[in-house]
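To make this tangible, we now present a fold written out as tokens:
***
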Amino acid sequence: MSHSPESQKSAAYEQMLARAEAAKAQPQPLEHAKTQAVELGELSLDEAEKIAEYLRRDLHSAAHFLSDTEKALADWMRFDLELLEDKFLTLFTGMVDHTRTELDNLAERARQATEWTSGEITTGTLQCANCGEVLAFYQPTHVPACPNCGGTLFKRMLEDESETN
């Protein structure tokens, strides 16, 4: 019994998902799963890259949907989850949760990247998160405590923000 190229690709998508789920503890589980499929001769590098990109897109889309809307996975899929095979649902849900956690961690790192504390070195314009005092640093300088209130947490002031303040 021969399988169509489409069904082989669908099976490869599911297999890559299973491998990525099993490798969640690694830094890039999807890359690990892709490499494994190529090394085992199951897929060419081009096929593995395409399937990994399809899977990455679906996982990111579902994770963003769940984070942004607080709705359920069934709302993203737009059909009853009972129609999915249990094994696939378990794998997909696990990887969506993992991807959502990664996205949440990335968002937290991005938020922290917009905050400076006393003692760090920076240049540019910062605003005290406590009182709003603006400090301008024209060369790399240690950030002092706020001279107005003693606060130690600052946010970067962007050009458009300084025009409105």
